[in-house]
Amino acid sequence: MGRSRKARRGQAAAEAVVEEVDGGLAELVPDRDRARAWTLLLDGAPQSHVDLDDPAYLSFEYQRRLGHVIDLVAPPGRPVHAVHLGGGAFTLARYVAATRPRSTQQVVERDAALVQLVRRELPLDPNARIRVRAADAREGLAKVPDGWADLVLTDVFSGARTPAHLTSAEFLTGIRRVLKPGGAYAANVADGPPLAHLRGQIATAAAVFPELALIADPAVLRGKRFGNAVLVGSAAPLPIAELTRRSASDPHTARVEHGKALTDFTGGAVPVTDAAAVASPAPPPSVFR
């Protein structure tokens, strides 16, 4: 698995775990404010935050927005079938298991060494119905039966960039295939000015899903800074009013765009195909300082 070491963060503090994985240098850093909470970083870029004592707690702003989508797909307590493309520290799979017990979930994470690290240091609840597959996202998605999922979440980054083959209409068509008629897709999309990647991803999703919404910090939408946006797609009407209310009242305030305003935002961008797909842009170094 590569080299491994532990670095102390103070005599009474938990130890950070630093280990080489397939995708680079992984760090599990203890949260000084929460007793059994950890942040996962890959090559210095924050990926996930997990509180083992309270897996329903979501810290990162984009994960909170994905949490809003989860909460609107099914009421708390009702089990769902969920597919997670990109595993990280399994934060959102843990969230679903905590808020909707008896849910059945599949996590697809290409980095097998990262999966082993997270399983060892931040073990999953053995009673949770979470299956983790070490595979490429598209390969793992192809193994999911038609119409199986209530929810598909994509949060896949390699070197802080989403791989090209996970940005195309063909990829999203595969996601729609595995969704139930009323199911929803939500993706973490990272971009900065001039937002060409984000606009292209919206146009691509619009070619596959008749209902769309975008959740993002207003400063990101205005092209003022690099950041994350959550793109939501479905074949069924989305609960826009409730999504807007939750996003506006969240500690990380966000705006929801949909309908004509979202179409106008794309600025004439065209859908991305496998033949023309490129990876998402690399974030500027200042993002992680």
Overall mean pLDDT stands at: 94
Order the strands across the largest sheet as they lie in space: 8-7-6-9-10-12-11-13
Q: Compute the separation of the termini in Å.
A: 28 Å
Total discrete domains = 1
**Number of E-state strands:** 13
The CATH architecture category equals: 3-Layer(aba) Sandwich
Biggest beta sheet attributes:
8 strands, mixed
Rg over alpha carbons: 18 Å
Secondary structure class reads alpha/beta
Q: Helix fraction?
A: 25-40%
Description:
This protein has nine helices and 13 strands. The protein is α/β, with parallel strands linked by helices and 289 residues long. It has one domain: Rossmann fold, CATH 3.40.50.150. Strands 8-7-6-9-10-12-11-13 form an eight-stranded mixed sheet, with helices on both faces. Helix 1 packs parallel to helix 2, helix 1 packs antiparallel against helix 8 and helix 6 packs across helix 9. The chain is globular, with a radius of gyration of 18 Å.
